[in-house]
Write a structure and sequence with these properties.
The complex is a heterodimer. Chain A is α+β, with helices and mostly antiparallel strands. Helix content of chain A is about 30%, strand content about 25%. The chains are: A alpha+beta, B alpha+beta. Chains A and B meet through helix 1, helix 3, strand 4 and strand 5 of A and strand 4, strand 9 and helix 10 of B.
């Protein structure tokens, strides 16, 4: 299962403060679906305001990116630039 | 040594034919001879002139707007107010690079029920002459109920502060507050256990910092022309950082389908993030729709400074624990940024970047996003990072002073490297921060002697860099020249870089490649020019489009020779048959001439969402001299060192480093918004809003460290944002060393610094 880390505010608002989770999902879309089933409402939060880092690589518009069983996945605030 | 004399960079020497050289930019001659067409230069037939009516109050309820007198001015053709625009509901929507609240954006473009800053647009008029438009604008009668403004984050967060938005409930706080406030969002990041980290420390320092609102300071004011065809299609000619961004935002705010808006990009006279949003375009479209004629709108400098996006001022705190050898054991950072009139300062990015240059086991960063009666903050190079770096890098410098350590060695001891856990969680891939510090250590600047009243500062900076969506097409002409079509406005020389990458892949001369920045109907979608993404992401698209074209060129050669395409290689701009010397090589021009006979025109394309933008790091060294009698600071020497991946065109990469350093020096020394007690901006021109000019600065030396980004075909990392991150702290650290007192409040303008020197500040 992938090691998933939620943003602290999302963890507090939706996941009883649990920031570090183990989740079985093949890609980001399925990961967010799985998290939303576990913590209703978190899916919308994660879909609209976050980027995702999978094993160190940041994806700005995450959706179909593959997650390996031992991947480390971080949800991050969306990154803009000037 | 002048740029033209510099040699091709070490990384590209011998490896590439075009990449790493320094050709003249394709748009250069037009720009230096005044022929280039910028936003204000377009003049369609029958054009009329628009003007914005702006609020003189920083905070007020709009009780009524009466346009009757204004409509009677001869030549007036249209007037719009907020009521002419569609209602857009609250909520955030992902829009390319950023998540956007169109509800807020609509109210920023033209106020509805409240004005929230001095200069906030309340109406717009269009008339047959600029004079008539100005006269009519003066006759638009707006009745206000004036409210007390809140001009700083501290005031806005105080108990009982007037509220800008009655429904603003702080997000990121659990449980959610029951009452509204001016605090839009609380962000928090943490690694490890900071209390345990501070318990391990031999020394602990805690400092507080203040910074002011600053503007991007682009030379070209916002400008556009809009027309509305009889079939309901809007055409917008404008200067921006993204024609697709302008199309999406204008369509949404005007209630049009995206296919009903065409945006034609003009040349851009600087943006630095400030042209990643719209101000005039929706107003011009609605005026053009009402008037039935094209409408030109051009901001004055006064309007640019009062009503377009600056970046946040605010305050911060950093508590740092370290062992005697300089090992940082814990960092606790708190940042409060002023978002302006609507939520959305870059404080979250400040939290993510402030300590990112260091390998810290224990850190916490808390950020507060606070609304105030100032213009809505827009992106500015590395949004949020320069102030965060000022807070953290100044505290590290103070710690080095306290421990008696070399500040560069202390940074090396704690430097992030491949595998280091970033403050926002993931581990860094291959990065070049240590190489930058080593280059600084080896640079003669670091050990050069200093004179009286002089001081030296060093500081580091980090930026993520991003990829996102980019499209490119490459068409082969009949004579073998090629046209590269892309969808990103050229701010920093990207036409040249695109042409160079295409030339490298195709094996043709740079001069035979013509790059073209196309309108929204001539190239598929590209995200905007920002986030240091274009040379990386659009460069990747151009490279792939060129590879696509090469594949087709090989296939056409195979047809001509009646062999399998696998029997054809592409070498130095020619198709070469392998395993036989029966066929004479075919040049790209040969194949271009025969395109019609072998299957039709040839073009390559690529539409991608580029991933793997490599993180960027920089180190700046600054020498200053302080006049102890006046507090005036002169920058004597400045060196900017940065890991740039691979420099496609080293001159333009160096220019990015120099430009970022110059802007950061201005931020550190002079720039600030000055308001009166009623919240009206007082310094609305470049005489009073003091940006550095060439005569204020020494030649900024640059060192390009090239640690190639493994995910880009040429190793490119974004370079445009990092160079504005270190200067605030580099300058402040230098001044602190020159006067022997720690400087924590920006700008270090003469009055403020003199007070500090005299013990009054």
């Amino acid at each position: 299962m992938a090691k998933v880390v939620l943003p602290l505010d999302a963890a507090r608002a939706f996941a009883n403060g649990e920031q570090h989770l183990d989740v079985d999902a093949a890609d980001v879309r399925k990961l967010i679906q799985a998290l939303d089933e576990r913590y209703p409402g978190i899916g919308q939060r994660l879909r609209t305001r976050t980027a995702v880092a999978i094993d160190g690589e940041i994806f700005q518009e995450p959706y179909l990116q593959t997650i390996k069983p031992n991947s480390e996945v971080f949800f991050l605030p969306a990154i803009e630039g000037g | 040594m002048g740029n033209e004399e510099k040699q091709q960079s070490e990384i590209s020497k011998g490896k590439y034919r075009v990449v790493g050289t320094r050709p003249i930019r394709p748009d250069g001659v037009d720009k230096v001879t005044g022929r280039a067409t910028f936003g204000a230069d377009f003049k369609p037939a029958d054009m009329i002139y628009g003007r914005v009516v702006r609020s003189p109050h920083a905070h007020a309820v709009i009780k009524s707007i009466n346009i009757e007198k204004a409509l009677k001015v001869p030549g007036v053709k249209a007037i719009v107010t907020g009521k002419d625009f569609p209602d857009i509901g609250p909520g955030d929507i992902a829009a390319g690079e950023v998540v956007v609240s169109f509800y807020d954006m609509a109210r920023n473009v033209i106020a509805r029920d409240k004005v929230l800053y001095d200069g906030h647009a309340v109406a717009a008029v269009a008339a047959t002459s600029p004079e008539a438009a100005a006269q009519a604008a003066d006759l638009v009668e707006v009745e206000y109920k004036v409210l007390k403004p809140v001009m700083s984050a501290r005031d806005a967060m105080a108990a009982g502060a007037p509220l800008l938005h009655d429904d603003m409930i702080t997000q990121g706080v659990t449980p959610a507050p029951e009452k509204p406030s001016n605090v839009a969002h609380r962000h928090e990041l943490k690694l490890g256990d900071i209390e345990a980290g501070f318990a391990e420390a031999d020394e602990i320092i805690e400092l507080e910092f203040n910074t002011q609102t600053v503007h991007q300071g682009y030379i070209e004011p916002h400008a556009c022309v809009a027309s509305m065809n009889a079939d309901g299609v809007a055409n917008v000619w404008c200067s921006s950082q993204g024609q697709f961004m302008v199309r999406a935002y204008t369509a949404k705010l005007c209630g049009l389908e995206i296919s009903k808006v065409k945006v034609i990009p003009a040349e851009i006279g600087g943006g630095f993030g400030g042209k990643t949003v719209v101000y005039l375009e929706p107003l011009a479209v609605m005026l053009a729709k009402k008037a039935g004629r094209p409408v030109k709108m051009v901001m004055t400098r006064d309007e640019v400074l009062r009503a377009t996006g600056p970046t946040s001022g605010g305050f911060g705190r950093c508590k740092l624990g370290a062992k005697k050898d300089g090992t940082i054991t814990a960092a606790d950072v708190e940042l409060t940024y002023e978002a302006g009139a609507f939520a959305g300062s870059p404080v979250a990015l400040g939290c993510m970047t402030g300590t990112a240059s260091y390998d810290l086991a224990n850190m916490r960063a808390v950020g507060w996003d606070v609304v105030v009666n100032r213009p809505k903050a827009a992106a500015y190079r590395a949004p949020g990072a320069p102030v965060a770096a000022f807070v953290v890098e100044s505290t590290i410098d103070a710690m080095a002073d306290k421990l008696g350590l070399d500040p560069l060695e202390m940074r090396l001891k704690n430097a992030a490297k491949e595998g280091t856990k970033a403050p926002y969680g993931p581990r860094f891939p291959r990065i070049g921060f240590v190489e930058c510090l080593e280059a600084a250590k080896a640079h003669p600047h670091w050990t050069a002697p200093l004179g009286p009243n002089q001081g030296r500062g060093i500081a580091a900076g980090f930026w993520f860099n991003i990829g996102l969506s980019s499209s490119a097409a490459i068409a082969l002409n009949e004579d073998g020249t090629v046209i590269v079509t892309e969808g990103n406005p050229d701010i920093g020389g990207s036409r040249a870089s695109m042409a160079m990458m295409a030339a490298e892949v195709l094996g043709v001369e740079y001069e035979r490649v013509k790059p073209l920045v196309a309108d929204t109907e001539s190239v598929p979608y590209s995200d905007l020019t920002g986030g240091s993404r274009v040379t990386f992401a659009t460069g990747m698209a151009v490279t792939q489009a060129a590879q696509d074209l090469v594949k087709q060129l090989r296939e056409r050669a195979a047809k001509i020779w009646d062999v399998d395409p696998d029997q054809v290689e592409w070498r130095d701009g020619q198709a070469v048959a392998i395993e036989t010397d029966k066929h004479k090589p075919l040049s790209i021009a040969d194949i271009g001439r025969m395109a019609g006979k072998t299957g039709g025109p040839l073009s390559g394309k690529a539409n991608i969402n580029a991933q793997g933008a490599g993180a960027g790091f920089g180190v700046h060294i600054c020498d200053v001299e302080v006049d102890p009698e006046t507090g005036y600071v002169s920058v004597k020497r400045y060196t900017a060192i940065q890991d740039v991946g691979t420099a496609i065109h080293p001159s333009y990469v160096e220019g990015q480093l120099q430009g970022g350093a110059a802007q950061g020096i201005g931020w550190a020394l002079n720039e600030e918004y000055i308001y009166d007690k009623d919240g009206r901006m007082q310094n609305t021109g470049f005489l009073d809003y003091r940006m550095p000019v060439a005569s204020d600065l020494p030649m900024i030396d640059t060192v390009l460290v090239e640690v190639p980004n493994p995910t880009h075909p040429f190793g490119v990392r974004g370079v445009g944002e990092v160079p504005i991150v270190p200067p605030l702290a580099a300058v402040a650290n230098a001044v602190s060393h020159a006067i022997g007192k720690r400087c924590t409040d920006l700008p270090l303008s003469p009055p403020r610094l003199l007070a500090k020197i005299q013990g009054k500040g």
